[in-house]
Predict the 3D structure of the following.
Amino acid sequence: MLQNKDLLTIAKEFGTPLYVYDTYSIKKQYERLITAFKNVSKLKINYAAKALSNITILKFIKKLGSGLDTVSIQEVKLGLIAGFKAGEIIYTPNGVSFNEIAEVAKMGVQINIDNISILKEFGEKYKSIPVCIRINPHVDAGGNYKISVGHEDSKFGISINQIPILLTIISNTKIKINGIHMHTGSDVLDINDFLNASDILLKHAMYFKDLDFIDFGGGFKVPYKPGDIETNINELGNKLADRFNSFCKSYGKKIDFILEPGKFLVSDAGYFLTSVNVVKQTNSTIFVHLNSGFNHLIRPMYYDSYHHIENISNIGGKKKIYTVVGYICETDTFGKNREIEKISKGDVLVFKNAGAYCFTMASNYNSRPRPSEVLWHNNKSLLIREEEDFDDILNKQLDVELD
Ligand code: LLP
C-alpha cells in the first residue's frame, strides 16, 4: 500500500501538481463489494467511469471483472479502447440528443433511457433493440443537493408516477425493456435510503415482463475525514440480497443484479500532490498557497467537500493551524483552519481521497494546464497521463483576423 514516503519520492520524480492512484486500494474495494453482495445469485459490477476515466485505470478495473457504466459517447469510446466489449457497457445519459443515443445503440452498448419522449422515439425507430429504463423512485438520498438525484423534483429518470404512460408506449411500440435502473445520489450513507428506494424499484419492476437485470446504481459513501463513517455495505449487501432473491422467486426468473459504484472503488485510491508556493501571514490567518486551485480539484469549493491534507515534507512534524488555498483569481479554499504539520515554502502537501471526481472534474481555468496522473502498481510508479502544456491551452483556438 502506498505510504507518504513513497508519495514524496513520486512527487520528486514527476513534479507537482500530480495525481497518483494506487491499484491495491481499487482491488481491495472491489473485493469488499463482491464479498458484501455475495448472497446475490447473479452479481455484476459496472464501474462508473465518470469518477476516474483514465484508460489505464479502466483497463485495471476491467481485469478485476467489472463492466462499465458510462454517461457520454466519449466515455463509451474510452471504455472500448480500454478493452471493454460493447455488451459490457451500459450508457445512462441524461438529456443528450437522440442522435447520440442512436449512435451508441448501434455500437451494441446497453442503452438506459431516462425520459419518455426519447423512449417513444427510440421505440418507434429501433424497436428491435432492447433498452433499460431509469426510474426515479422519489427518495431523498445523497450527501448534498447537487448530488441527490432520485427525488421528485430531480431532472433524472422517469417518475414512478409515469409508469402507466411508460406501459402504453411499450405496448404501442413493442419495444423490449430488458432492464430497469435507479441511481439516487452520491454519498448515500443511510442504508435505509438505499433499501427504501430499492423496495420501490422492485415493486415497480413487476410491471416489466422481459427483464434480464435490475441496476441499483451507485452512491455508497466513503470516509473522507479521519474516523469518518461510511455506508455499511455488508449490512446493505445482506438485506438487499434477501429482497432481490425473493423478488426473483416471485418474478419467476433469476436475473442479474447490477451495481455501478464510482467513489467506492476509486476515491480512496487517489492522492493529489501539490507544492507550497507561498506561506502568507495576514492579520488573522496563515494562508498556504499551493501550485494548484479549483482548476485541478474543485470538490472542496463546489460541494464544500472535505479532503484531508497532510504535509509529507514534514511527516510527524509539530502541527499548526493553516488555511490552504490555491493560486486562482477568486476564492478557492481547499481547507480552512486545518491542523497540519508545520509548512514551509516548497513543501509537498497531499490531498487524500483524490481518486473520484477530482481529475475528471479538472479544467483549464486561468489558462492553466491539467496535471499528470501516475499509477502506483506493484510498488512501481507508472506515468499514465502527461501534464498538459501551453500547446494544449492554445490547441483548437483559431487566431482569426478581424477588420
Ligand atoms: N450511476 C450513475 C447513473 C451516476 O450518475 C453516478 C454518479 C454513479 C453511478 C456513481 O456514483 P458514485 O458511486 O460515484 O457515488 N461529482 C460528485 C459526484 C457526482 C455523481 C454523479 N453520478 C462528487 O464529487 O461528489
In short: Residues 87 and 322 are 50 Å apart (CA to CA). The radius of gyration is 23 Å. The chain is about 30% helix and 25% strand.
